[in-house]
Amino acid sequence: ILGADPSEHLSVVSGLYDVLGLCYMQTNQFDKAVEVFNASIELCIKEYGETHFSLAAKYEILAEVYVLMTKFDEAAGMYEESLKIRKLQNPVRQDDIAKSYTGIGSMHLRKGDYFKALEYYKDAEDILVKEFGPDHSSLLIVYLELGHFYEKMSEFDLSLSYYRKSHAITQRDLGPEHFDNAVYYSNYANCFLGQG
What we know:
Strand content: under 5%
Order of helices and strands: HHHHHHHHH
Structural class: mainly alpha
Distance between the termini: 61 Å
Mean pLDDT: 90
Largest sheet: none
Number of strands: 0
């Protein structure tokens, strides 16, 4: 690929931009991340068209950058683009739609629009429980986000319930010794402290 005409390898270059964008994101260079993610999106559109399924994930990661920058209007626009593509490309893959709802819910939670966040989280939960059952791995993030939501609302019993559901999935899938378990013990402690 080195030395070749980049137009012959647009998908590879787009993927490299994604990796570079993630690096910028991890180092809090958000303006640079936005620039390279937009370049990745442009290349993907040029290669595959405006409704290709891979664009959904690209729009979502760009939305996450905008959330970190507290540019919520821009983030909402990217999430809506992602959701539109997911609904168009694969309407039977409800888990993909639930993933978009979870991202949109997280944006609203960070923005302080708590009840809008809850609406999206509950929609995602309903879709995933209906499709896979209440203890499927795909619910891990939704349960964790609902735990965060209820903790912010000082509804600690509900928060603990969702944290426990997410933790049970983590322990089953990754094992009780996995380092991700530490997050749950911290969440439990915060809830217990909140309860008094």
